Amino acid sequence: ITNAVHMLGTGDPGKIEWAKEVLDRQVKQMCRLVDDLLDVSRITHGKIDLKFDAVDVTKVIGVAVETARPFIDSRGHTLTVNPPPDQVRVRGDFARLAQVLANLLNNAAKYTEDGGNISLGAAREGSEIVFRVRDSGMGIPKEALSSIFEPFRQLGSAADRPQGGLGVGLTLVKRLVDKHGGAVEVKSDGLATGSEFVVRLPLLVDVSAGGA
Hints:
Elements: H1 2-8, H2 13-44, E1 53-56, H3 57-74, E2 78-82, E3 89-92, H4 94-110, E4 117-125, E5 128-135, H5 169-179, E6 183-187, E7 195-202
Parallel strand pairs: 2-4
Antiparallel strand pairs: 1-3, 4-5, 5-7, 6-7
């Protein structure tokens, strides 16, 4: 941002246009980082206000994909989405559940080399709806699996994650899923094997009636 501001004073049309693009991109990135930090702080101190309602799983998947799509496309990834074949609902905060899935998709895109494969699927398993986000990325060492949801935990070097970040996206995922009475886990066979994040949430008792 400092470099871009300096370029604005040069009077060079090409440099000014470059500076505007940098400022726009970096300010959006900064806002996202600050929002993530504030969310972690609110959850930690019990100050987050969740609005529970009957949430259509297919619709929340759609919003999450829409949110993450620009980043996924910018990396040249192929995204496959498999929503449940019939209407499935959970009791939750629509915006926060969309944030959970979008964070997992963004995480998959960030740790997968350009042109990789990412998938998001959801299916009933007993009394739960199970979301699975898979990627063909760098994978996770076995010794890191138990700490992957801790704040500020990041894998690899800065070169492995050119989009930066603070390492709180997965922390938000876990804490929001916990608030919904669900569970999240990660699976990977190690480096260069990709990874899979699994989110389990309880279904509404009476899905066919559409009520909570």
